[in-house]
User: Fold these one by one.
Assistant:
Number 1:
Amino acid sequence: EGLLDGVYPATPEHLEPVLEETRLLGQLVEDLRLLALAEAGQLELEKRPTDIGALLQDAQVNFSPQASDRGVILALDLPPELPPTAADRRRIAQILGNLVTNALRHTPAGGTVTLSAAAEAGEIKVVVADTGIGIAAEELPYIFERFWRGEKSRARAGGASGLGLTIARQLVEAHGGKIGVESTPGQGSRFWFTVPETGGQ
């Protein structure tokens, strides 16, 4: 309104925050739409034969620049082979992106975030472990609740909507898997999720 009324000049300095807030609102609307579809059981998944190891390798490549900027090592630990699974590659990549982004955000310089996967009892278990600040035990039961934030005083750093982990849980459950977290304050967190092997579906 200030720009329209001529109170503020339409300079990049004044327009950039408006554009950034518009992007944040757009992402929030998309997150809420996705969450509503998932909770209503109407989210369509394009399940195809998927190499989970390849998705982890892609995540390492895609997030390495961000990790480097933060002074964090982004490591990958994969077995020689993983069983096949049928999954929506885009949604699995979205889950990974959320978990890796959170891990990097809460891991100080000099720390490590490790991506790994292993076959366990008819499932593939994917783990994103970090050496970051950790999560208090009393907060763990709420970590996947919508709009939950452990750091209550922190502003919307990085445009986080507080829906990412809730969406990750819905996407994992839509694949017939489970998601969870273990954490020790001051030592780091270990987020994991599972997807069924093709033969185990």
Number 2:
Amino acid sequence: NNQSVEVLLEAPKDSYSERSLLYGLEPLGKGTPRVESISSYICRLAASHNIKVSSLLIELIYPHLSSYSYLKNIADKHISGSSLLGIGKTSCDIVSALEILTKRNDLIGLTLLNWSAILNLKLISKSKKWCSTCFKEMNMNGHIIYEPLIWQLKEINFCSKHLLPLQEVCINCKKKIPHYTSRMQLGFCPYCNTFLGEIVESNIPIDCNITDRQLSICRVYSQLLINNYTSLVPTKEAVRYFFVRLNNVNESISYSQFAKNLKFSSDQVITWFSGECRPPIAFWAVICKIIGASIDQLLIKQYNLDKLRPMLEKRIIKIEKRKFISNEQKQKLKSNLENYLKSGESNLSLLAFASTQGYT
């Protein structure tokens, strides 16, 4: 009614909520291992405004980036997958810009930025990967098609839902698909417009070929994505302190033995203990499996590390003193050997015969 309109008009401007420049789309898969990637969110955002992805990035997102962002100074405004999906400064700037434009505060959960203290920078594959069965199911069930972030991680090569290999080339044009293209459309090849949910004949379950280490790595990444909105995340200091604790609780420690038991190189292990490099997620996957804790619990709650002690201890090599034998013992051994040879049995090797006599 007129009275209500007058009240609204007379209300101070501060009483109105601030409007966002872009739609505040709800992220898909939030709080699950299959949360969508930031590139998938950008693509859906562009489609909801009926504009090209390139227009969204160049005209709206880039102007909100830091003045020193390299994207402001390159001619073609091309952005790599590692910059868009990774844990570097550019990815952080893009997320911040999107949160300003959409008035959302949860878009950092579409990346692994929260865990940058424990991850290496090069964790994103060079080109897109996808599960064609997932795309087909999304399409058939009338669900919104999107791309989970976990597909784009360099160390993940299978779909954890279907245990199928992730596809890397279009079934039609045989081209690899970059993480960013001007006319990108989720679930479709930007070059030939083929639906990527077409099932490949070789797309059969590979669960028998997935190693325990691959499953462990996938499990750790899944834990990080699920806990992406936790208030506590490990810092670089937490990683350093983990190795300090290993040194302190083990009087006798062998880096080479530790590396051998965990199947890493000694040079790698030494750089982790010295703090020069961060361990790969494969290392944390092995440690979490041994201790029986998730990665965030391991680094934040300071779990007991006694289960790692046998893997760190120096191997004790027992050196037996040389035994000297008398001439009488030599003659007896010679006689036994001659008798054995004369018996014609000869079913023992020289080593086996020596063992029966109590010698090497």
Number 3:
Amino acid sequence: MAALLTTSVGSFPKPDYLLKARTAFARGEISREQLAAEERRATEACIRLQERLGIDILVHGEMERGDMTTYFAEQLEGFAISGLVRSYGNRYYRKPIVIGPIGRRRPMAVEAFTLAQSLTSRPVKGMLTGPYTMADWSFNDYYPNRRALVLRLAEVIHEEAVDLERAGARYIQIDEPAISTRPEEIDLAIEALGIVTRGLSAHTITHICYGHFETIYPRMLDLPVDQLDLEAANNDFAILELFRRHRPHKEIALGVVDVHSHRVEPVEQIKKGILAALEVLEPDQLYIDPDCGLKTRTWEEAEQKLANMVEAVRQVKAERGLE
């Protein structure tokens, strides 16, 4: 197996021309087709950047998405969308409200995946927001309890995952950042993710952040996916101590650059984190990526962080004879 494969978590910064187009569309100044053309342009720029840097498993950058939950809720039956709600810091999103039975009208992520995969010979991840996070980041005014809502969402997102696999996705990532915020519901999160990944032959991944991993470890190793994608850089790689106590039996994609900081980490600092991870994980078990999506950085910062990450991996592989 290949060692220290590089990837990214999902979102990329939206280029200025796309931000302007989104504003113009909201004002009714351009058509949906014109906006879609700019989204395609930005998606190709994202793919070309990753190819140029030498990243192994690509993402499409989520140029067509705003908030990761609202994007899907807007396309599903059974949801309304609220006014602006604070997410964190000075960032806001329009929170979904469940008002009726949830159902899928049509595939929601296949078109963007198909476009991105057509632009490159390298594998592109299919990207979904998981059922637990969809439920946790929405108001529930219809289902009798959280469990009923989460499990219904799991069935709907499973349908989407099946469509992504049929469209050629070799990697399917189901983002579940909310899992670590309610450790008492880890069993529900495991059950729901099992529904999403049921019967899939694609390589499955879940990304988790926004919490204290020690509250759900080692139970989170029971999440039914091939790979856990976890942030590490922004808490000084404290998660490695958990791995020392209870070694994970599945792949780990480890965040080695902090996406919440404008600072571009030098190569030597990133290498130090990778080498520390190799003390507790096997090279073919360890994937390398940023802590989370890059959409809050500038395009230049994202490129510089990824370039240094790839160079750090290159140097580690050369020094360890892993080429």
